[in-house]
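Reviewers asked in the last cycle whether our approach scales beyond single polypeptides. To address this, we selected a multi-component target totalling 768 residues and predicted its structure end to end. The input consisted of the following lines:
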Amino acid sequence: MRKVAIVGVGSTEFGELWDKSFRSIFLSAGLSALEDVGIGGKEIEAIYVGNMSGGKFIDQEHIAALIADHSGLAEFGIPAVRVENADASGGSAFRQAYMAVASGIHDIVIAAGIEKVTDANDPMEVLSTAIDQEWERFIGADLPAIYAIIARLHMHRFGTKEEDMAMVAVKNHRNAVHNPRAQFRKEISVEDVMGSPYVAEPLKVLDCAPLSDGASAVILASEEVAKKLCDDPVYIDACTQASDYFSIQNRRDILTFDAVVRASRKAYKIAGIEPKDVDVAEIHDSFTITEILAYEDLGFAKKGEGANLIREGETEIGGKIPVNTSGGLKACGHAVGATGIRQIVDLVLQLRCEAGKRQVNAEKALALNIGGSGATAVVTILSR
Amino acid sequence: MRKVAIVGVGSTEFGELWDKSFRSIFLSAGLSALEDVGIGGKEIEAIYVGNMSGGKFIDQEHIAALIADHSGLAEFGIPAVRVENADASGGSAFRQAYMAVASGIHDIVIAAGIEKVTDANDPMEVLSTAIDQEWERFIGADLPAIYAIIARLHMHRFGTKEEDMAMVAVKNHRNAVHNPRAQFRKEISVEDVMGSPYVAEPLKVLDCAPLSDGASAVILASEEVAKKLCDDPVYIDACTQASDYFSIQNRRDILTFDAVVRASRKAYKIAGIEPKDVDVAEIHDSFTITEILAYEDLGFAKKGEGANLIREGETEIGGKIPVNTSGGLKACGHAVGATGIRQIVDLVLQLRCEAGKRQVNAEKALALNIGGSGATAVVTILSR
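The resulting structure, written as structure tokens, was:
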């Protein structure tokens, strides 16, 4: 297995991009990544695309080949593969791209994530195809309902408060203010969150990430090629994926995402680090409780003590381990299949010291991308 | 890159499986493959699933994790990845599985393909999300219309007759009679095809593959592991993928699928063979013209002379290069995302001399799986 580096990154803004089409946003992200590394595109040997539901959102499947063509790469005929694992599609596509280069099959590939949700009638209904249609959705549960059950049980068992969850949203909004690509560049207060209407008790509107349009792209290369292309490659120390029981009622513990535990432990081992060595992280905060749960499952806090990290400011910029300096899914936006790639983009900016006012001092960075209610998790560890 | 072998294969019957659910058919295919090699399942290190449109066909995305769970593998938490490239999803998932083992990342993985189409209101409408929604579908073209244009031009430029195309359907139906998993185990005549109603002139009902329910699975292992597990592993000599302009109007020649040309030439080179060395092939005959075009693009015949092969019986069982001894998509059935895996299953049976009355004498076998109107092609070469 060869060392693999990230040599270029690009992303659109995330948000309700009413005036931009699916095709224009992936072009924009891809071109930014190519410009970032200073190549034209014909060097690219394969394309991996993370996308959750082109079919249901825009009535278009087969989008990897579509993207290869509209990116001007059709004449080279390179393999183009779409990967789907619900909102972990981006992370999962990144991992396939990583494997393709690490194995020596390809020297330089692009991994992109994209979702155009605003063209659909009911994006939340589409997102809920990520959970079990026969055992969860059929009885009326959607993703907020599932996470509300998790949040309620966490409160009951560990004393986590609605205010603790609110503080996650407050932190992520504060971080997003300085992220030019974030959907909500606006501070909010704990009172704002507490006063927002319930979506599924105890989760309120401001506990929930939005559904966004957006696309992100990263270019991966072998160490040898990377050194020729740029002075500051960011290395992929590990990229792992794991799964869990699909619906939450079958799990050994509703408050532990075993997919996150498994993927992260394996990643730490491969990278030769421990949770305390992580300097900055992008965590899949689809709901505020998801981030608190992830603190625990990633080993940043003991089970049940995740809320302490947010109470004590440990995950703020300037804290021991800043989480979601981008604003996270909550404030940067959640362009579903793009999110896993967008996380990598933001961590690369941090490791390259290009994060502007959000900059933290970091050598090791971790991304956690989760599919649905935790049946899929992808963990990536990067270093400069 | 290590040598990779196929150690187990399994498949459901293809057809209108009204009394079977999505979940029961993938279980059935997966269990057959495990039984074939004689392992229980916990040995499997990763799952790759080819599926075109779980979202639109059964309102369920995130199906790789669902399949991992319902196959009893959730407790092991192995990575599960869905791959989508329209009706080349199966071939493309197979290729990712192949890469995962060839690279040394995994020792033994399962590649499965599945589609449940009969639960959807309008399966053909779903299938047409494989072509360009903005430049083709929007003006009313669907997949039969696109292939009808190709067929009409082939007739005009090269003198191919409707009767030639009909003979492809007749051959494939004849082969399917002896395939216990085929949807249409019934011979038809050229007159039957010629007398069937037009779908899109010059293509008639009996020129078109059906849309079917079905699932297929193959277990791939490194050479070392394969030798421990079975006496008769089938080796993967090459597995390549290529893309082309997405919609046909942009291509240099509407009558050449460059993705097929590129993928096959690369595969021949890697495998160290020429087209004439192929002893048996499974070809993506979504329409009868698709098979004739593939004869040419794979190099079995010169451009424009594909129809000669069918006229002269060269691709019959007993001919120089038997094609679609399974019955092909036309008569075995086309379970969209399963088809690319089903082709591999049938070729493995041929190479193991387990094809019963369909058996041919073969050492080198080739599978061609095509996405949509040719924007994606996957070519696999197997040998015993």
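The domain at 139-208+237-383 of chain A is CATH 3.40.47.10 (Peroxisomal Thiolase; Chain A, domain 1). We regard this as preliminary and will revisit it once experimental data from Aim 1 are available.
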